[in-house]
């Protein structure tokens, strides 16, 4: 069983191919959010380096959100096109849960954070119990200070990761130490983690057809929010 996983939910573009036994290959770029141009060449390059044809892929996994509106749409449209042409299934997975799967830590709570600008974040709180990643707090949109208040009030020992942990590191550092941050190698989206997590989803038959793919934004697009704000002032 071969799986192709892609993550285009943020500035990172990441592609991985693997199976039940191992990650066969991964390409990750953390430079400019130009996924509409880069993602297909990355997929093609990885397939060629692995001497594989796209027809050999059995499942397509992707991050369904939260994240960049444009990036999420590119990821969804890419896997839908491939799955449709090959009549294969798609495995949609939370961006935050896939990020949390970077961390193997049975002691601390894993807190992936995506920067939503102006001190707003997308966040979740997860616990890895013997390889099984479970949500303690479901993904939600919040303020970075509200998130930290919740963590402090509930006496949670966290490990932070994601671009939100970088953007708001000064705020987080008022309450937590450097050891509460994931190392650089594990801090951002990785298609290999998404692929590994998708194995659990496939085992539980949590996959969909190309025509049933949905994106989870957790908030309205900026253009829609601005329109509603203007209309509200009229």
Helix content: 25-40%
Which architecture of the largest domain would the CATH scheme give at its second level?
A: 2-Layer Sandwich
> Which CATH class of the largest domain is shown?
Alpha Beta
Radius of gyration: 18 Å
N→C terminal distance: 57 Å
Provide key terms for this protein.
234 residues, alpha/beta, Nucleotidyltransferase, domain 5, four-stranded mixed beta sheet, 8 helices, 9 strands, 35% helix
What order do the helices and strands come in, and which of them pair?
Elements: E1 3-7, E2 13-18, E3 23-29, H1 35-49, E4 59-65, H2 69-86, E5 89-94, H3 95-100, E6 109-115, E7 120-129, E8 132-143, H4 144-153, E9 158-161, H5 163-167, H6 169-172, H7 191-203, H8 222-233
Parallel strand pairs: 1-4, 4-5, 6-9
Antiparallel strand pairs: 1-2, 2-3, 6-7, 7-8
Helix pairs in contact: 1-2
Quick structural gist:
With 234 residues, the protein is α/β, with parallel strands linked by helices.
Structural write-up:
This protein is an alpha/beta fold. It folds into two domains: 3-96 and 189-230, 2-Layer Sandwich (Nucleotidyltransferase, domain 5); 103-186, Nucleotidyltransferase, domain 5 (2-Layer Sandwich). It has eight helices and nine strands. A five-stranded mixed β-sheet has the order 3-2-1-4-5, with helices on both faces. Strands 8-7-6-9 form a four-stranded mixed β-sheet. Strand 1 and strand 2 form a beta hairpin. Helix 1 crosses helix 2.
